[in-house]
Amino acid sequence: MRVILAEDSALLRDGLRRMLTDEGYDVAAAVGDGAALLAAVSAAEPDLVVVDVRMPPTHTDEGIRAALEIRRRWPSVGVLVLSQYVEQKYAVDLLTGASARVGYLLKDRVADVGEFLEALARVGSGGTAFDPEVVRQLLRRTTHTDPLSRLTPREQDVLAEMAQGHNNPSIAARLHVSQSAVEKHVKAIFDKLDLADADGYSRRVLAVLRYLGS
């Protein structure tokens, strides 16, 4: 799988490049700003990009804006965003604009190499990978008038796992409940959010995230 890295910290950028190379990824480029990322994607046609939210010259939103541009111009390219903090507005913009091949992780998650590589593989293979803290903070944006307020605490737990990209068997294992219980919770979630007709794994995640961004 061909990957492009975009990270302004030379130390982290080199560390990621070495780690991915060791894991068998073809790192086509490792760049330090958004403009260089767009140029590299145009030249190398990667399968996946890993991009920091804040990059030069202003260190505000250059990386996430480049990620959104990649989603618009090259929709087949997977995008895994790394951020020091949860940038709620940009998380919603990114996650509600794509049905698959997208992820948003906090940088702390990179410290867990196995978890990071699992998320990377999931996005590269067409799935989704959302940091639990990102999902929690998006859930906290809701108010008593929001449809998400209809969910029970356990249904919110299941929703958070769904939004991270886990399927029903995985959710059952992570929450230590039966798969049939998860299936009932998922059905209740879609009923309460008026999304009962949303079928298909990536489509259900997209539908949930659109509600999170509403």
Automatic annotation (TrEMBL):
CDD domains recorded: LuxR_C_like, REC_NarL-like
Pfam families to which the protein is assigned, alphabetical: GerE, Response_reg
SUPFAM superfamilies hit by this protein: CheY-like (SSF52172)
SMART domains: HTH_LUXR, REC
Keywords carried by this UniProt record: DNA-binding, Phosphoprotein, Transcription, Transcription regulation
Domain HTH luxR-type: 144-214
Biological process terms in GO annotation: phosphorelay signal transduction system; regulation of DNA-templated transcription
4-aspartylphosphate PTM sites in chain numbering: 52
PROSITE patterns: HTH_LUXR_2, RESPONSE_REGULATORY
Listed GO MF terms: DNA binding
InterPro entries to which the protein is assigned, alphabetical: CheY-like_superfamily, NreC/VraR/RcsB-like_REC, Sig_transdc_resp-reg_receiver, Tscrpt_reg_LuxR_C, WalR-like
Organism superkingdom: Bacteria
Domain Response regulatory span(s) in chain numbering: 2-122
Name this polypeptide is given: DNA-binding response regulator
